[in-house]
Input
Amino acid sequence: MKDSPNDLYQKLLKGDRRAAARLITLVENADPSARQALKMLHRHSGGGHIVGMTGSPGSGKSTLTCRLARHYRDEDRSVGIICVDPSSPFTGGALLGDRVRMQELSGDPEVFIRSMGSRGALGGLSVATNDVINILDAFGKDVIIVETVGAGQVEIEVVKYTHTCIVVTMPGGGDEIQAIKAGILEIGDIFVVNKSDRDGAPRAVADLEMMLETKPGTSEEAWKPPVITTMALAGEGIDELAAAISAHRGFLVESGLLEEKTVQRMRAELLEILNLKVSRAAENALEEEGVGAELVRRMADREIDPHSAADEVVEYLLKRAGR
Amino acid sequence: MKDSPNDLYQKLLKGDRRAAARLITLVENADPSARQALKMLHRHSGGGHIVGMTGSPGSGKSTLTCRLARHYRDEDRSVGIICVDPSSPFTGGALLGDRVRMQELSGDPEVFIRSMGSRGALGGLSVATNDVINILDAFGKDVIIVETVGAGQVEIEVVKYTHTCIVVTMPGGGDEIQAIKAGILEIGDIFVVNKSDRDGAPRAVADLEMMLETKPGTSEEAWKPPVITTMALAGEGIDELAAAISAHRGFLVESGLLEEKTVQRMRAELLEILNLKVSRAAENALEEEGVGAELVRRMADREIDPHSAADEVVEYLLKRAGR
Output
């Protein structure tokens, strides 16, 4: 039997894992009943600390996330893990990294792991990921770790507005740090050089610290992103990383920036839902008889240019809404 | 003195390269006068054959593009090259690959090369790239090659609707083909195994051919994507590649699919302009006093959930448009 939105809501607040999993599936399927449950759950969210974990593939983010989750469990804090992979069409199932984790974390009812694939919808993935963060937040998870598979543009968008964003790198083959791309330096609150037993680790740390020091627009009172060295596989450096996350949280609370970050996050979330919504409305209008096909035909016949055609669709949308 | 849209239009039709370059810069800056010139130029476009060139970084796309351009020049056909790099914030200037090419192709007035960076606007890059394709098309280029730096999702979107899409790979380290990711097999009309002197090339060709044969939904009359081996640096296989492009063009014309592809392309272009347009309208609404900030505050205070807040913005937009 299918649960009503209210059933799911009630069960979720009581800590029913299967209800949480079902609601997430409804979110992924863009089921209208998910909207209802999300609406009811919203006032219960806001308690969790949201941690983003990004960096190049192979830098060891999955192992780091797993070790961090175990650290929190040892402190008796509950953990949600969302693994975002825009390049994978799969959703819900266990990705490779998950399988490793599941062996380590399975059986612990206080750890909730979920993978999010693309399903072909770029904008949709960000929105769905935010929905799942909110669900796990309302579900009472103390820490929610959003881990990305790579560090592509979609992935950076997804972790950009977390409370604490961790950027993971590793020593490069030569004297360079891998995967510190344009845009990623700006979003990191904590930097990790993982696989720190490899050649070039001290150099990687020094390079990173130099890059961070010369970052423009840094004021006296601003947070100074620390660079932590870890060996995630051996479990080394995890306590230091967790301490840095705590310190960052403390800084956010004391400086009043937690509030500001929450507002930024809400704004970004609202904008993404809006973008998805208006884009879908536009796409649907193009599907309507006599609108899209006719305009495209006129474009192909070189009667109207694409920008003017887009103006006509907008006119049509507004006219229809005004009816 | 600044040229008027009409001046640019007139000069461009007369073959003035500097006018073409200036108009492209206006497009990149989203200058309103670009819209006017694009509108006038539209009816002069449609003659060029648009070739997409994508594949993983390091597979040799730049060299291949350069060799292909020289091949067309030997046949006295004019060439436009657009190099799309979503990860680069730069636009207009010469990227690394361009510099190599420029040495080889510079001084030839019938080759026009342009790089397109991201400028931070994802949706914007696709739209701007389409505008530049249309400009070079109206400028009279016989072949327009759109080359991407990598094979990310934005890059695939950019080459997906070209007339002939070439996917470039190279033999992997072991027995696998590099960079044939989900989604890229579907968009290729021609596959190239470049650096075919490397170990594993025959295996890479065989693997690709097998993947293509088992591709679902292929009918008898459909185009069978060939797999071409090249050594771009040595100029080997370029004639075969050019012949495959010709054959594909011939197939498109005879089957009536050229028309269909043009329509698909127009539709995709229209949709992207629409998405950009409505997204910007939504974003601007959020900036307005008393709309965005107020809603975000209510979201942060857990009074309203993000999806309901998005509904309110849409209501506001429609109400305002109806005034």
The mean pLDDT of chain B is 85. Chain B has three domains: 1-44, 46-257, 272-322.
